[in-house]
Amino acid sequence: MKCTDDQSDVSFKTTWQLPPRFVMDVFNKKDLKKKMEDYIYKFMQPTADLKFIYVPIQEDDHWYLMVISVCEHTIYHMDTHFNDDRIRYRERVMKTLAHVLEQVITSNFYKDDGIQEYNKQFHDYKIERPEDIPQCSSSLNSATWVMKWMDMTYEFKPYGNNKLDDHDIRMITAVHILRSRINYKKPQIIASVEEFWNMHSSYN
């Protein structure tokens, strides 16, 4: 929901943020062409100013983030658990996703988007793993790290983001979703919160 809301903001025209289900749909392959049309409409509108593509990836209980930097011709592997046994597998996953995104962005739908063709060759992009990302012994807060990184949007910086306030990130994300223009349950939630607040305030 947060991804969809962010994409509706004109200030995010330099960034595509794909939802987690994108990865599942790519590897499921069922009705992929039809689903891609939906992603194009909701998350991947043509823009000559495209700089970053964010793709959150879930592997069992672990989350990591793929960020395609169009200007740098680099795919950033943002991960709090660079497990030697899993790095190659995860980067094969990212290469597959990059290939699918390349097929999409080189389709006729984007022929007049203004992006230079050499910038669309995602399969040639190098993969870089920022070395200053704290490495955790478990995946308990890996999803929170991904939320933190995605919140950088058009100001993405792969280095220097090595501190995490888990509580703050969760609260900021929850408030963002609550206030979202596409949260159809917002009036009900606000009414419930006000009722709860009034009920407890009456005891003071």
Automatic annotation (TrEMBL):
<keyword id="KW-0645">Protease</keyword>
<dbReference type="GO" id="GO:0008234">
    <property type="term" value="F:cysteine-type peptidase activity"/>
</dbReference>
<dbReference type="GO" id="GO:0006508">
    <property type="term" value="P:proteolysis"/>
</dbReference>
<comment type="similarity">
    <text>Belongs to the peptidase C48 family.</text>
</comment>
<feature type="domain" description="Ubiquitin-like protease family profile">
    <location>
        <begin position="1"/>
        <end position="153"/>
    </location>
</feature>
<dbReference type="InterPro" id="IPR003653">
    <property type="entry name" value="Peptidase_C48_C"/>
</dbReference>
<keyword id="KW-0378">Hydrolase</keyword>
<protein>
    <submittedName>
        <fullName>Uncharacterized protein LOC127745573</fullName>
    </submittedName>
</protein>
<dbReference type="InterPro" id="IPR038765">
    <property type="entry name" value="Papain-like_cys_pep_sf"/>
</dbReference>
<dbReference type="Pfam" id="PF02902">
    <property type="entry name" value="Peptidase_C48"/>
</dbReference>
